[in-house]
Amino acid sequence: MTTKDIIEQGKAYLGIEFGSTRIKACLVDENLVPVAGGSHSWENKLENGVWTYSREDIINGLQDCYADLRKDVADKFGVELTTFSGMGISAMMHGYLAFDKNDELLLPFRTWRNTITGEAAAELTQLFGFNIPERWSIAHLYQAILNGEPHVKDIAHINTLAGFVHFLLTGERELGIGDASGMFPVRDGGYDKDMLAKFRALDKVKAFGWDIADILPAVHSAAEGSTAKLTEAGAKLLDPSGSLKAGVPFCPPEGDAGTGMAATNAVREGTGNVSAGTSIFSMIVLEKPMKGHYPQIDVVTTPDGADVAMVHCNNCCGELDKWVNMFIEFSKLAGNPVDVSTAYEVLYKNALNGAPDCGGVVSYNTISGEPVVGLANGKPAYYRQPDSAMSMADFFRAELYGAMAALKAGNDILFEKEGVQPKSITGHGGLFKVKGVAQQMLADALNSDVSVMSTAGEGGAWGMALLAAFGIEKQGETLADWLEKRAFAGMEKSTLSPDAAGNAGWKKYMENYSAGLAGAKAFGEI
Q1: Which of 458, 420, 364, 350 is nearest to 27 (CA)?
Q2: Does residue 162 contact residue 91 with C-beta atoms inside 8 Å?
Q3: pLDDT for 429 beyond 70
Q4: Residues 6 or more apart from 476 whose CB is under 8 A from it?
Q5: C-alpha closest to that of 194 among 184, 203, 204
Q6: What are the Carbohydrate kinase FGGY N-terminal domain coordinates in residue numbering (predicted)?
Q7: What confidence score (pLDDT) does residue 456 get?
Q8: Does 277 have pLDDT greater than 90?
């Protein structure tokens, strides 16, 4: 059967993921190989001190991404998309979307990027004896209560971005367990009942007419699946052309962490992955429960409900991209313009020639706050020692280190205090597109082998398509077994081991990075 036949007969699977800077669609064939894609670029806005995307941004971006997918399919295969075997929605995790009884947004979407819930996160962490990060939905909700925000009394339900889009398309308020675990702590396949009771008992919470358990979405693991299907209204919303038919089965919506684990075959205990794009985060699937809790480490779950130690950093490639674009601009001014791919290739690979400790140059890539290293407010900065050579190789190596420094700080706690030692770590996302550069630096930083697969650039939309396929095909198999058999059998990958000089260089770099944090903090507060 040809790819055209597969698409025409509705046997392909579709994954759509709302990333921080791009919404991506990935269409895969029966062999789970990507055959077509679509995308839409967007940016969050800082409005009244809050990072947000508007409802119009969300819907228009969804429609434009799907239209781009339709065009790609038409150009490649000469056919129209009408249905799929299954599909699923993913999005950046956490944040806060609050709705009234008429399903109207009560206030602009507060994204994961906001660092405005410190008081609530600290109180809930103490109450639960469990780390509640600032970006989690429950921290946003409780901070709104502490702030006395008037919208709280009108809340009928809250959701994540993936859950909201899933609701628009299917009419179901539900989440995959991985995404749900970034709203409220989970245990035994659902929200932690003891913690729900503790939250419910708070005097400030009792003042409202809603119950926390009632306003949260339902929870489903990937193995449990979903009964949701694309509605007539959802089909028209996604595809205003009218070609798409209702009735497509959906899997539970997931967060980008869950799709990253699926896309890197890192859902089995003892495996891990690092996703690196606008933000950077590591996910290590735990083999045993953690003994302590730390503000730098979240405990979330795989799409099948296994506990995961997550180190989530708000900043990664954003500042790097600005510097690359500046050198592209210089090349144009010099009359020798280079394209984007060449610029990244040259600058990143040359960074390998820099000193392992970056020659005394230190970069803070903090466009927004970075809670993992204690920065409430973000302003990009760099400094160097007076005797630094300040070569381009040293400078760009420092920028690449800066993109991973907070991640290393969090994982150092996990590895040293909890004795966690993953059997494998797989990298994916934009940072790894230039072969062998960020991969080697990450291996040196974590002192662990790091692999990158041939699908590293496909990202979460492909991971979501895999989860959609699992939702249809599962026959009593675990997600880990199904992925290994169906998606990753014979998958090409490259593995790099840590270099002793690089690991020693990282230690010196982190000494300099830590020494300058007080200055970075003061600069961010100006």
Answers
A1: 458
A2: yes
A3: yes
A4: none
A5: 184
A6: 13-197
A7: 56
A8: no
Q: Which of 133, 125, 58 has its CA nearest to residue 89?
A: 58
Residues 6+ apart with CB under 8 A from 352: 393, 397, 436, 437, 440
pLDDT at 455: 65
Residue 170 is which amino acid?
A: T
- Give the integer Cα–Cα distance in Å for 154 and 514: 44
Report the C-alpha gap between 449 and 497 in whole angstroms.
4
Q: How many other CB atoms are found less than 10 A from the CB of residue 145?
A: 17
Tens-place pLDDT, residues 1-29: 899 999 999 999 999 999 988 999 999 99
Residue carrying structure tokens 């907070």:
406
What separation, in Å, do the N-terminal and C-terminal C-alpha atoms of the chain show? 62
Q: Checking phi first, is residue 320 left (phi over 0); if not, alpha (psi -120 to 50) or beta?
A: alpha
How far is residue 453's CA from residue 490's CA, in Å, rounded to a whole number?
A: 11
DSSP type of residue 240:
T
Q: How far apart are CA 235 and CA 93, in angstroms?
A: 24
Domain residue limits, the chain: 317-409+509-525
Burial class (CB in 10 A: 0-12, 13-18, 19+), 312: buried
Closest CA to 401 of 511, 261, 523: 511
Element (H, E) at 340: helix 340-351
Between 418 and 492, the higher pLDDT residue: 418
Mean pLDDT of 129-158: 96
Q: What is the model's pLDDT at position 492? A: 84
Coil, strand or helix at 244: coil
Radius of gyration, CA atoms only, the chain: 22
Residue 400 CA to residue 342 CA, distance in Å, equals 17
Amino acid at 148: G
pTM given for the model:
0.89
State the DSSP code for 241. Answer: T
Query: Helix 438-446 crosses helix 500-515 at what angle (to 10 degrees)?
Result: 80
DSSP 97-162: EEE-TTS-BSS--B-TT----HHHHHHHHHHHTS---TTSHHHHHHHHHHTT-GGGGG-SEEE-HH
Both tokens of 431, joined, read 């940072």
Question: 410 CB contacts (<8 Å, ≥6 apart)?
Answer: 282, 296, 297, 311, 313, 372
- What lies within 8 Å, CB to CB, of 425 at 6+ separation is 266, 271, 272, 273, 274, 282, 284, 442, 446, 448, 449, 450, 451
Report which residue type is found at 419. Answer: G
Average pLDDT estimate for 497-521: 96
Phi-psi region of 275 (alpha: psi -120 to 50; beta: other; left: phi over 0): beta
